[in-house]
Specification:
This protein folds into two domains: 3-225, Lambda Exonuclease, Chain A; 237-308, no CATH class. The two termini are 49 Å apart. By secondary structure, the protein is α/β, with parallel strands linked by helices. Strands 1, 2, 3, 4, 5 and 6 form a six-stranded mixed beta sheet that branches. It has a two-stranded antiparallel sheet with strand order 7-8. α1 (3-25) packs across α4 (56-78) and α3 packs across α6. The chain is extended. It has helices spanning 3-25, 34-37, 41-49, 56-78, 131-147, 178-200, 235-269, 291-300, and strands at 32-33, 84-91, 98-108, 113-120, 152-161, 168-174, 272-274, 277-279. Bound molecules: iron/sulfur cluster. Iron/sulfur cluster is lined by residues 40, 42-43, 208-210, 214, 217, 219-220, 223, 225.
Length: 323
Protein backbone atom coordinates (compact mmCIF):
# COMPACT_ATOMS: atom_id res chain seq x y z
CA UNK A 1 0.00 0.00 0.00
CA UNK A 2 1.26 3.46 -0.79
CA UNK A 3 2.09 6.08 1.85
CA UNK A 4 -0.67 8.26 0.41
CA UNK A 5 -3.21 5.47 0.97
CA UNK A 6 -2.19 5.21 4.63
CA UNK A 7 -2.29 8.99 5.09
CA UNK A 8 -5.82 9.08 3.63
CA UNK A 9 -6.90 6.24 5.92
CA UNK A 10 -5.50 7.93 9.03
CA UNK A 11 -7.07 11.28 8.09
CA UNK A 12 -10.45 9.56 7.65
CA UNK A 13 -10.13 7.87 11.04
CA UNK A 14 -9.26 11.25 12.56
CA UNK A 15 -12.35 12.73 10.93
CA UNK A 16 -14.52 9.91 12.26
CA UNK A 17 -13.11 10.38 15.77
CA UNK A 18 -13.83 14.14 15.70
CA UNK A 19 -17.33 13.51 14.34
CA UNK A 20 -18.03 10.88 17.00
CA UNK A 21 -16.76 13.17 19.78
CA UNK A 22 -18.93 16.06 18.59
CA UNK A 23 -22.01 13.83 18.21
CA UNK A 24 -21.70 11.99 21.50
CA UNK A 25 -19.63 14.19 23.80
CA UNK A 26 -20.26 17.70 22.43
CA UNK A 27 -17.76 20.48 23.19
CA UNK A 28 -15.48 19.04 25.86
CA UNK A 29 -14.02 22.48 26.58
CA UNK A 30 -17.27 23.43 28.32
CA UNK A 31 -17.48 20.68 30.93
CA UNK A 32 -15.48 18.03 32.77
CA UNK A 33 -16.07 14.46 31.65
CA UNK A 34 -15.95 11.82 34.38
CA UNK A 35 -12.89 10.12 32.88
CA UNK A 36 -11.03 13.46 33.09
CA UNK A 37 -11.57 13.90 36.81
CA UNK A 38 -9.36 10.98 37.81
CA UNK A 39 -6.60 11.94 35.35
CA UNK A 40 -3.62 14.26 35.97
CA UNK A 41 -5.10 17.80 36.26
CA UNK A 42 -2.48 19.39 33.97
CA UNK A 43 -3.14 16.80 31.29
CA UNK A 44 -6.92 17.28 31.57
CA UNK A 45 -6.69 21.08 31.44
CA UNK A 46 -4.18 21.27 28.57
CA UNK A 47 -6.22 18.71 26.59
CA UNK A 48 -9.17 21.11 26.81
CA UNK A 49 -7.15 24.15 25.76
CA UNK A 50 -5.09 22.42 23.04
CA UNK A 51 -6.80 19.14 22.10
CA UNK A 52 -3.97 16.87 20.94
CA UNK A 53 -4.16 15.19 17.55
CA UNK A 54 -4.53 11.48 18.07
CA UNK A 55 -1.97 9.21 16.41
CA UNK A 56 -2.99 6.13 14.44
CA UNK A 57 -2.73 3.77 17.43
CA UNK A 58 -4.96 6.02 19.55
CA UNK A 59 -7.47 6.37 16.71
CA UNK A 60 -7.66 2.60 16.35
CA UNK A 61 -8.05 2.31 20.11
CA UNK A 62 -11.06 4.68 19.95
CA UNK A 63 -12.66 2.52 17.28
CA UNK A 64 -11.98 -0.59 19.32
CA UNK A 65 -13.82 0.99 22.25
CA UNK A 66 -16.88 1.75 20.10
CA UNK A 67 -16.81 -1.76 18.64
CA UNK A 68 -16.71 -3.32 22.12
CA UNK A 69 -19.83 -1.35 23.09
CA UNK A 70 -21.61 -2.38 19.89
CA UNK A 71 -20.82 -6.05 20.50
CA UNK A 72 -22.09 -5.91 24.08
CA UNK A 73 -25.27 -4.06 23.01
CA UNK A 74 -25.93 -6.63 20.27
CA UNK A 75 -25.44 -9.45 22.79
CA UNK A 76 -27.86 -7.83 25.26
CA UNK A 77 -30.47 -7.46 22.52
CA UNK A 78 -29.96 -11.06 21.38
CA UNK A 79 -30.35 -12.18 25.01
CA UNK A 80 -33.73 -10.45 25.10
CA UNK A 81 -32.86 -7.49 27.35
CA UNK A 82 -34.97 -4.46 26.63
CA UNK A 83 -34.50 -2.55 29.86
CA UNK A 84 -31.31 -0.71 28.99
CA UNK A 85 -30.30 2.59 27.44
CA UNK A 86 -26.97 3.42 25.84
CA UNK A 87 -24.72 6.50 26.13
CA UNK A 88 -26.88 8.04 28.82
CA UNK A 89 -25.85 11.65 29.37
CA UNK A 90 -26.08 12.86 32.96
CA UNK A 91 -25.30 16.42 34.09
CA UNK A 92 -24.30 17.35 37.60
CA UNK A 93 -26.64 20.03 38.92
CA UNK A 94 -24.00 21.65 41.19
CA UNK A 95 -21.58 24.54 40.60
CA UNK A 96 -19.05 22.64 38.53
CA UNK A 97 -20.08 21.43 35.05
CA UNK A 98 -19.52 17.69 35.23
CA UNK A 99 -21.12 15.41 32.64
CA UNK A 100 -21.14 11.64 32.49
CA UNK A 101 -21.77 9.59 29.36
CA UNK A 102 -22.70 6.19 30.69
CA UNK A 103 -22.26 3.26 28.32
CA UNK A 104 -25.24 1.26 29.63
CA UNK A 105 -27.94 2.06 32.19
CA UNK A 106 -30.34 -0.72 33.15
CA UNK A 107 -33.64 0.45 34.64
CA UNK A 108 -36.44 -1.38 36.42
CA UNK A 109 -39.46 0.91 36.39
CA UNK A 110 -41.35 -1.52 38.62
CA UNK A 111 -38.71 -1.70 41.32
CA UNK A 112 -37.55 1.89 40.69
CA UNK A 113 -33.92 0.82 40.46
CA UNK A 114 -31.04 1.49 38.11
CA UNK A 115 -27.67 -0.12 37.42
CA UNK A 116 -24.62 1.11 35.50
CA UNK A 117 -22.37 -0.85 33.16
CA UNK A 118 -19.13 0.63 31.85
CA UNK A 119 -17.47 -1.17 28.93
CA UNK A 120 -13.69 -1.10 28.46
CA UNK A 121 -11.58 -2.61 25.71
CA UNK A 122 -8.04 -2.91 27.09
CA UNK A 123 -5.16 -4.50 25.19
CA UNK A 124 -4.77 -6.98 28.04
CA UNK A 125 -7.28 -7.61 30.78
CA UNK A 126 -5.81 -6.73 34.18
CA UNK A 127 -6.30 -9.05 37.16
CA UNK A 128 -7.76 -6.11 39.11
CA UNK A 129 -9.65 -3.21 37.52
CA UNK A 130 -7.61 -0.01 37.11
CA UNK A 131 -8.22 2.74 39.66
CA UNK A 132 -9.22 5.14 36.85
CA UNK A 133 -12.01 2.73 35.76
CA UNK A 134 -13.35 2.57 39.32
CA UNK A 135 -13.19 6.35 39.74
CA UNK A 136 -15.23 6.72 36.57
CA UNK A 137 -17.81 4.19 37.76
CA UNK A 138 -18.23 5.80 41.20
CA UNK A 139 -18.78 9.17 39.54
CA UNK A 140 -21.28 7.69 37.08
CA UNK A 141 -23.29 5.98 39.83
CA UNK A 142 -23.24 9.11 42.02
CA UNK A 143 -24.29 11.43 39.19
CA UNK A 144 -27.01 9.05 38.01
CA UNK A 145 -28.40 8.79 41.55
CA UNK A 146 -28.36 12.59 41.97
CA UNK A 147 -30.17 13.09 38.65
CA UNK A 148 -32.85 10.44 39.41
CA UNK A 149 -34.00 11.00 42.99
CA UNK A 150 -37.06 8.77 42.48
CA UNK A 151 -34.84 5.80 41.68
CA UNK A 152 -32.22 3.87 43.64
CA UNK A 153 -28.96 3.22 41.85
CA UNK A 154 -28.33 -0.27 43.12
CA UNK A 155 -25.04 -1.26 41.57
CA UNK A 156 -22.39 -0.80 38.93
CA UNK A 157 -20.00 -3.03 37.01
CA UNK A 158 -17.14 -2.82 34.54
CA UNK A 159 -17.01 -5.21 31.59
CA UNK A 160 -13.59 -5.54 29.97
CA UNK A 161 -13.75 -6.83 26.39
CA UNK A 162 -10.52 -7.98 24.81
CA UNK A 163 -10.21 -8.57 21.07
CA UNK A 164 -7.16 -10.77 21.60
CA UNK A 165 -7.06 -14.07 23.43
CA UNK A 166 -8.32 -12.94 26.84
CA UNK A 167 -12.05 -12.73 26.00
CA UNK A 168 -14.10 -10.85 28.55
CA UNK A 169 -13.96 -10.17 32.29
CA UNK A 170 -16.64 -8.69 34.51
CA UNK A 171 -15.65 -6.64 37.55
CA UNK A 172 -18.81 -6.21 39.56
CA UNK A 173 -20.13 -5.72 43.08
CA UNK A 174 -19.77 -1.92 43.06
CA UNK A 175 -22.35 0.19 44.86
CA UNK A 176 -22.59 4.00 45.09
CA UNK A 177 -20.25 5.39 47.75
CA UNK A 178 -21.28 8.82 49.03
CA UNK A 179 -17.87 9.67 50.55
CA UNK A 180 -15.91 8.71 47.44
CA UNK A 181 -18.39 10.59 45.24
CA UNK A 182 -18.15 13.75 47.39
CA UNK A 183 -14.32 13.55 47.30
CA UNK A 184 -14.32 13.21 43.52
CA UNK A 185 -16.69 16.16 43.10
CA UNK A 186 -14.37 18.23 45.26
CA UNK A 187 -11.48 17.20 43.03
CA UNK A 188 -13.56 18.12 39.95
CA UNK A 189 -14.17 21.56 41.48
CA UNK A 190 -10.43 22.16 41.98
CA UNK A 191 -9.61 21.04 38.42
CA UNK A 192 -12.37 23.23 36.99
CA UNK A 193 -11.17 26.30 38.94
CA UNK A 194 -7.57 25.66 37.84
CA UNK A 195 -8.82 25.38 34.26
CA UNK A 196 -10.52 28.79 34.49
CA UNK A 197 -7.32 30.19 35.99
CA UNK A 198 -5.10 28.83 33.18
CA UNK A 199 -7.55 30.26 30.62
CA UNK A 200 -6.93 33.76 31.96
CA UNK A 201 -3.27 33.32 32.88
CA UNK A 202 -1.37 31.06 30.51
CA UNK A 203 1.70 31.07 32.79
CA UNK A 204 -0.28 29.35 35.57
CA UNK A 205 0.74 25.72 36.11
CA UNK A 206 -2.03 23.34 37.15
CA UNK A 207 -1.40 20.52 39.60
CA UNK A 208 0.58 17.64 38.11
CA UNK A 209 0.38 13.99 39.03
CA UNK A 210 3.31 11.99 37.73
CA UNK A 211 2.63 8.32 37.06
CA UNK A 212 4.31 5.56 35.03
CA UNK A 213 1.85 6.48 32.24
CA UNK A 214 3.32 9.97 31.74
CA UNK A 215 5.19 8.66 28.68
CA UNK A 216 1.85 8.50 26.84
CA UNK A 217 0.79 12.02 27.89
CA UNK A 218 0.75 14.43 24.91
CA UNK A 219 2.12 17.18 27.20
CA UNK A 220 5.12 15.34 28.63
CA UNK A 221 7.67 17.19 26.45
CA UNK A 222 7.36 20.44 28.41
CA UNK A 223 5.98 19.08 31.66
CA UNK A 224 7.66 21.00 34.53
CA UNK A 225 7.61 17.87 36.71
CA UNK A 226 10.36 16.38 34.56
CA UNK A 227 12.60 19.42 34.90
CA UNK A 228 13.30 18.49 38.53
CA UNK A 229 16.71 17.02 39.31
CA UNK A 230 15.02 13.86 40.47
CA UNK A 231 11.48 12.67 39.67
CA UNK A 232 10.64 11.30 43.09
CA UNK A 233 7.16 10.17 42.05
CA UNK A 234 8.77 7.47 39.88
CA UNK A 235 10.90 6.07 42.70
CA UNK A 236 8.57 3.13 43.33
CA UNK A 237 8.31 2.26 39.65
CA UNK A 238 12.10 2.22 39.13
CA UNK A 239 12.57 0.36 42.42
CA UNK A 240 10.16 -2.38 41.31
CA UNK A 241 11.84 -2.63 37.90
CA UNK A 242 15.37 -2.97 39.34
CA UNK A 243 14.11 -5.55 41.85
CA UNK A 244 12.42 -7.55 39.05
CA UNK A 245 15.59 -7.40 36.94
CA UNK A 246 17.58 -8.75 39.89
CA UNK A 247 15.06 -11.57 40.34
CA UNK A 248 15.18 -12.29 36.58
CA UNK A 249 18.98 -12.63 36.71
CA UNK A 250 18.81 -14.92 39.76
CA UNK A 251 16.06 -16.96 38.12
CA UNK A 252 18.04 -17.37 34.90
CA UNK A 253 21.08 -18.57 36.86
CA UNK A 254 18.90 -20.98 38.85
CA UNK A 255 17.23 -22.31 35.68
CA UNK A 256 20.61 -22.82 33.97
CA UNK A 257 21.99 -24.79 36.95
CA UNK A 258 18.92 -27.06 37.12
CA UNK A 259 18.94 -27.64 33.36
CA UNK A 260 22.63 -28.51 33.41
CA UNK A 261 22.21 -30.98 36.31
CA UNK A 262 19.23 -32.73 34.69
CA UNK A 263 20.95 -32.83 31.29
CA UNK A 264 23.91 -34.54 32.95
CA UNK A 265 21.56 -37.24 34.31
CA UNK A 266 19.70 -37.92 31.04
CA UNK A 267 22.97 -37.82 29.10
CA UNK A 268 24.33 -40.54 31.33
CA UNK A 269 21.15 -42.63 31.86
CA UNK A 270 18.88 -41.90 28.90
CA UNK A 271 15.27 -40.59 29.11
CA UNK A 272 13.61 -40.39 32.53
CA UNK A 273 10.18 -39.40 33.85
CA UNK A 274 9.70 -36.98 36.74
CA UNK A 275 6.94 -34.61 37.85
CA UNK A 276 4.75 -35.98 35.04
CA UNK A 277 7.27 -34.83 32.43
CA UNK A 278 9.51 -36.76 30.08
CA UNK A 279 13.09 -35.58 30.12
CA UNK A 280 15.55 -36.58 27.45
CA UNK A 281 18.64 -35.34 25.73
CA UNK A 282 17.76 -33.71 22.41
CA UNK A 283 20.16 -32.72 19.67
CA UNK A 284 19.31 -30.20 16.99
CA UNK A 285 21.42 -28.76 14.23
CA UNK A 286 21.67 -25.11 13.38
CA UNK A 287 23.42 -23.31 10.58
CA UNK A 288 26.22 -20.92 11.47
CA UNK A 289 28.10 -18.60 9.21
CA UNK A 290 31.79 -19.33 8.67
CA UNK A 291 32.86 -15.69 8.67
CA UNK A 292 36.56 -16.47 8.13
CA UNK A 293 35.81 -18.23 4.84
CA UNK A 294 33.33 -15.55 3.86
CA UNK A 295 35.90 -12.81 4.51
CA UNK A 296 38.47 -14.65 2.36
CA UNK A 297 35.92 -15.12 -0.41
CA UNK A 298 34.91 -11.45 -0.40
CA UNK A 299 38.55 -10.39 -0.41
CA UNK A 300 39.00 -12.14 -3.75
CA UNK A 301 36.37 -9.77 -5.16
CA UNK A 302 37.90 -6.71 -3.51
CA UNK A 303 35.21 -6.47 -0.85
CA UNK A 304 34.91 -6.98 2.88
CA UNK A 305 32.17 -7.89 5.34
CA UNK A 306 31.77 -4.26 6.41
CA UNK A 307 30.66 -3.37 2.85
CA UNK A 308 27.51 -5.35 3.60
CA UNK A 309 26.93 -4.16 7.14
CA UNK A 310 24.37 -1.47 7.86
CA UNK A 311 23.96 0.61 10.97
CA UNK A 312 20.50 1.14 12.32
CA UNK A 313 19.43 2.87 15.53
CA UNK A 314 17.34 1.23 18.20
CA UNK A 315 16.12 2.43 21.57
CA UNK A 316 16.18 0.79 24.95
CA UNK A 317 15.95 1.77 28.57
CA UNK A 318 19.40 2.19 30.07
CA UNK A 319 19.53 2.25 33.85
CA UNK A 320 22.71 3.35 35.59
CA UNK A 321 23.52 4.49 39.11
CA UNK A 322 22.83 8.23 39.27
CA UNK A 323 25.67 10.53 40.35
S1 LIG B 1 3.54 14.32 31.84
FE1 LIG B 1 2.51 13.38 33.59
S2 LIG B 1 2.56 14.93 35.19
FE2 LIG B 1 3.00 15.97 33.27
S3 LIG B 1 1.05 16.68 32.52
FE3 LIG B 1 1.36 14.71 31.60
S4 LIG B 1 0.37 13.26 32.97
FE4 LIG B 1 0.61 15.16 34.11
Amino acid sequence: MSDQFMITLQAALQQLAIQHTVETLGDRATYLGVSEIGACPRKTILSKINPPQADLVTLLRFRRGHMAEEIVAAAFTAAGFTNFERQVEVHYAGDVPVTAHIDFVFTSKVRKTMAVLEVKSPETIPTEPYGSWETQLYLQMGLLAAANPDYTVEKGAILAVNFGSSGMALFNGYTPQATIFAGLLERACTIWNDYQHVMTDSSAIPAMEVSPLCGYCPFVADCPKFEAEEVRELTESVEILTELQKQQKNLETDIDIRKRDLLAIVSARGPIKAHGRLLQKATRTRKTLDTDRLVDFLKEYGQSLTDFQETSAYSFLEIKKAA
